[in-house]
Fold:
Amino acid sequence: MTAVVETEGLTKFYGTRRGLEDLTLDIRPGEVFGYLGPNGAGKTTTIRLLLDVIRPTSGRATVFGASTRDPRVRARIGYLPGELALEGGERARDYLRFLAGVRGGVSRGRIDDLAERLDADLSVRMGRLSKGNKQKVGLIQAFMHEPELLILDEPTSGLDPLVQQEFLAMVREARTAGRTILMSSHVLAEVEHVADRVGIVRAGRLVAVEDIAALRERAVRHVELHFDAPVPREDFEGLPGVRDVTVQGASLRCTIDGRPDALVKAAARHTVVHLVSAEPDLEEIFLTYYSEEEARHAHAGA
Amino acid sequence: MPTLVRKTLGEYRRALIGWTVGLCAFLGMYISIYASMMKDPDTFTKQAIAKYPGALRDLMGGLSDIATGTGYLQAIAYQLLGPLLFTMCAVILGNRALAGPEEAKTLELTLTLPLDRRRLLLERWTALALGLLGVALVTLVVAAGASSAAGMGVPFGRILAAHTGLFLLVLFFGTLVLCVGAAFGRKQVALAVAGVWGVAGYIVETMGRSVDALSWLRWLTPVHYYLDGRPLYQGWPYGDYLVLLGATAVLLMTALLAFERRDVGV
Structure:
């Protein structure tokens, strides 16, 4: 299967300031790719390179196997800019119709359906839209022509939680329909429930690309077990992947890295009355990447 | 009509109506004063005009024949104020073609439409040219109507020739602003370039014609090709108008090349 988005050594300098350096990345058909990093890390630079708004200093990027310079490629992309600006006296609906017209038409009722789902009022003049409503109009224009590739830059910013849920549902539906999605965010929590893979970019460099499933497996989990009688601490010491064991009478607390198998087998020798396992905190791993990277930079700088 | 041309004209609509109304009011009012001034011929006797400083008279195109219909129409409508106002309109609209939307960040989404940049720019420019043409046509009707009502006795053909020059001049400045905006994406830069070239050009053309050190500079100013042929007196200066058109075409080509290779919105 050929990649939907393919970049090789993609580099962008703004004068002497590094925007993005040596990005080599494939985004596969039908996947949801979460593109993560703090503000200013190079997420928007990457996205704008893919849409040919800016031109690379070196390296190359292709979308659907064609050069990003080819305007026909953009008919197959739905794009939500990170800094969406809408202004003027035009009504949101008329603007959406204009965009739809240039992209080759949108089925009747599609715009209204999306507006209803996101609870957006399209009769408002664009200059008067609130931040949240602007974002909704942005999402409608990105989704309305049912593009094969969705590129969404910080899609959930400005949306209230209910609309965020609806948006995530739209992303899942698009994936079910076989579409490919690249969405950026500066928080993992926003993408971890829909993304298949995440890439982490920092200071213009791609630091890691991870499978969400693998990340979850590697995640640190806090587990609490309650037994019907006090248990000896030695039974749980030295188990593979089990750390920080504390026993207090009949209850045990520990942290596990990866699979809980060894702990479950050890606990099975006693009578378990209650088990609490917190949802793995991916944010923690995510932050680990950052701090490692930071430590390395600090080291290199010293 | 291509979608983007229609859409751009829609964006220009209010400004176009405003400028058309303003220019028509200006032309209508000042031209109609002519009739009342002719009733009192003392206003513009040779002696009265001679009291103005020479430099001011140069700046206003001489004023020697302001007591005649043609001279008055030239001084009022086609010498300084008419072109100045209409050029301001063209400069403002020209800036709204690319540099304005780029600074407001609304251009980004337009750029990501499946249009190539060349087409985007050409359609924006076409809308600008059509808008200016619309203003020119309406103001032509008003200028011709008002001057015939005031009994100026200037043939329509001459007014048409002068007005065509006016349109070509403002199209040049509109295209200049669009071109600088396409190359740099900054409204202020475009405004500065057009302002300096326009004002300096006008001064060189009117006051510099008698200064040897400056007179060669006249060839570099678009105002020269607008004023020098004296269309209101002598009819169509085809050569000059072709130069204006050619310069506009060069600017448009430059804009296409510059916009094609630029990072937008950084």
User: Anything to note?
Assistant: The radius of gyration of chain B is 20 Å. Residues 3-28+84-260 of chain B form one domain. Chain B has one domain: 3-28+84-260. The mean pLDDT of chain B is 92.
